[in-house]
Amino acid sequence: MNLKKALKNKLEPEELELVPRAFDIIGDIALVEIPEELDKREKLIAGTILKVHRNIHTVCRKMGMRSGELRLRELRVIAGKATETVHREHGAMFMLDVKKAYFSPREATERQRIAEQVGPGETVLVMFSGIAPFAVVIAKKQPNVAKVYCIELNKDACRYAGDNIRINKLGHKIVSVCGDVKDEAEQFYGKCDRVVMPLPKEAHKFLPEAIKCLKGTGTIHLYHVAPEEDMFTDAVKLGKEYCRKAGKKCKVTGKRKVLLYSPRNWKVCVDFKVSG
Ligand SMILES: C[S@@+](CC[C@H](N)C(=O)[O-])C[C@H]1O[C@@H](n2cnc3c(N)ncnc32)[C@H](O)[C@@H]1O
Fold this sequence. Notes:
Elements: H1 3-6, H2 13-18, E1 24-26, E2 29-32, H3 42-52, E3 58-62, E4 75-79, E5 84-89, E6 92-97, H4 108-117, E7 123-126, H5 133-141, E8 147-152, H6 155-167, E9 174-178, H7 181-184, E10 192-197, H8 207-213, E11 214-227, H9 233-245, E12 249-262, E13 265-275
Parallel strand pairs: 2-3, 7-8, 7-10, 8-9, 10-11
Antiparallel strand pairs: 1-2, 3-4, 5-6, 11-13, 12-13
Helix pairs in contact: 4-5
Bound molecules: S-adenosylmethionine (SAM).
S-adenosylmethionine binds at residues 69-71, 102-103, 107, 128-130, 133-134, 151-154, 157, 180-182, 198-199.
């Protein structure tokens, strides 16, 4: 829905200018950015969303950027009540509380892209796995995957990961571990064909563990944040540097712009084939 269009006759033209064109939808919850100049209009905006989008039952206002280790942001409910929901994506279901665990519906295409690369018989580790969307999408898209292991720090996200493994009937394929990657990765050393590292600003710090998790040869998907004018140099350099330190060879096999992270900064992914 174009929010500006829906509010056209309800706001002054200068107010309308400030309304975001779109907003995120997770399950039956809308998450909207409302600038402070429109503080007095938030109820009108929320009411309009509920009226136009009959399957939305809660509207949350984003109160700032994501922060901290758990990558959460403050959300204020401005219409409705419940912040727990079930989101549907390409035939998968994800249960979560939008206030308690990270989830981005904008990363659906990226999840599909990673899942498409997974071959039959592979063992995959998803570090920083949140409510387990990567793991579920991988196990659904590649039913012959050997195992998908997940490691996540946020206890609420771990609980939802357990729910999501169960409701998607993937208990025989996905194993979820609640804890810090620094402490938990060791149990997977030498066991994996592929490691997914979706923690954009910090993932590179865990490359030593990711490299050790691979069998002789394997793939690492490293997420990173970089400025628009030079999106991949830093991530490529980091990947190569850590491989060299570990005595491994590594080759870049893919580079992808995932989504806009902040003004002029992009979340990117670089895929590495590690061997030796
Ligand atoms: C950007 S979110 C990605 C979550 C999930 N992979 C997804 O795509 O929805 C990063 C996640 O990493 C978790 N995290 C941060 N540091 C961690 C660590 N050292 N060990 C395990 N998990 C960590 C956070 O709690 C958060 O859920």
